[in-house]
Amino acid sequence: MFGLFKKKSQLQLLQVKYENLMKESFILSKSNRSAADQKIVEAEEIMKQIESEKSKPF
User: Fold this and answer.
1) How many Cβ atoms are within 10 Å of 20's Cβ, its own excluded?
2) Which helix (H) or strand (E) holds 22?
3) What's the pLDDT tens digit per position in 5-23?
4) Cα angle vertex 13, ends 9, 48, to 5°?
């Protein structure tokens, strides 16, 4: 309940964006393979950002 108004960190926002892109790519893979590949490339870029956020010292 107390986490209701807590803002998400940059890392959490990137993870949500990554998950959404992967879901979209899965859905598109059934109908449009080239668009699905583009979504995967975008998701890989987000994953690189996630890894760089994790490696940053606090």
Assistant:
1) 13
2) helix 10-29
3) 788 889 999 999 999 999 9
4) 105
